Amino acid sequence: MGFTNFGLSDHIVRGISEAGYATPTPIQSLAIRPALAGKDIIGCAQTGTGKTAAFILPLLHRLAESADAKSRDRHPRALVLTPTRELAQQVQNAAATYGRFLTLKAVSIYGGASMDNQLKLLRRGADIIVATPGRLLDHMERGTIQLSKIEVLVLDEADRMLDMGFINEVRKILAKVPRERQTLLFSATLSSEITALADRALRDPQTVEVGERRNPVEAITQQFYSAPRESKVDILIHALQADRMDSVLVFSRTKHGADKIRRRLERNGIPSVAIHSNRTQSQRERALEGFRRGEFRVMVATDIAARGIDVRGISHVINFDIPQYAEDYIHRIGRTGRAGAKGDAITLVGPDEMEYLKGIERFTGKRFSVQPYPGVIARESSPAPRTENPSRRQPRTSALGKQKQHSRRKKQNIISARRKKHPVKKLEAFSSDVGSKAWSNY
């Protein structure tokens, strides 16, 4: 079956043909027809299966059919949310490619780019906005984007948006778009969190799936190791030196902790970089690019700074500090094992973090064993002093102290012997004045 069988407009079919495509992929075959009928869609398929065209083509068709001179009032009619700037650019390019024979205009907005340039594009008007959640909220707070005319909302790579910590931003955006809309949600996985988001955002959706449904956490090996606070860095260094870990993301609870970890790793010959909220946007981008290229083997990040990190091929996620909230744990380890690949997650659990581990177990419905890290003898905290009966406690005397005691006893014995032989009468006190010494008798 070709694209002509869906009922797409001739202009769109021509754009598809000019782009060199003739046969739809399985996810496109399943999703395009119900989307054209106005249904809300949950689309589940792995990366690289053609999900972008599965929502862009029906979106373009709907906007083109209802477009007229009056509808170009500078307010967008479709919104596509994506987790990263790269995906935003990709979706915008797809809209421009398939819609090259239409009069529709798509604009992408994302963090790390000039706000002034984006404002100029928005003032000229746009039918389709492709945005990352954080930058979109920036524009909404400035009043430079109005979402009151949105007819179609697309949540692209929804699982990655949640993994990267954008759930609160997505909820705020959902509250600002019209309730009467069509919503298309596409994801590589369908976890319980994705299902909860779909229940909130979609109405009577039709689910289309390609391939086997799986929980992303199931593809990740999760290991928990006991680690006293003073031994955590030693265990981390040992793990990085002893095991094959190509690209490692280490999570620290604090900015100071992230910098401290990076310095210790660097001193031990492990190329590392740290990102947190004290880093500028340009510093973050340089750090991410160096991590992607393999210049840095380890990236140490705080939860807040990790939002927006999108690096494929992360072999290991290490929780140096166990997260306080179980949802953050799921988001952290979701950075590895993507797109069907295997992943590894290691969590170092201190004695004061056992309550957080119990929260993770309750959230995931699993029990995890906590073992010492193989090959590492942890430096335990100094034991508390033993409590004894004070009356039985005997003071310890050093060798020097014993010698001094012996000298004092010897002198006392000599003085006593002299007094017995030559008794002193009426000797009451020894008086010491500045510059003179005298015996005084009363």
Brief account:
The protein has 442 residues and is of the alpha/beta class.
Low-confidence stretches: 381-397, 424-442
**What is the mean predicted local confidence, pLDDT?**
82
Number of domains: 2
Look at the structure and give the CATH class of the largest domain. Alpha Beta
- Give me the count of strands: 16
Q: How large, in whole angstroms, is the Cα Rg?
A: 35 Å
- Give the biggest beta sheet: 7 strands, parallel
Strand order of the largest sheet: 3-4-2-5-6-1-7
What is the 3D form? elongated
Q: What's the assembly state of these chains? A: single chain
| Cα-to-Cα separation, first versus last residue | 129 Å
The CATH architecture of the largest domain comes to: 3-Layer(aba) Sandwich
Count of helical regions: 16
Q: What is the helical fraction, as a range of percent?
A: 25-40%
The name CATH uses for the topology of the largest domain is Rossmann fold
> Which structural class matches the secondary elements?
alpha/beta
CATH superfamily of the largest domain: P-loop containing nucleotide triphosphate hydrolases
The fraction of residues in strands falls at: 15-25%
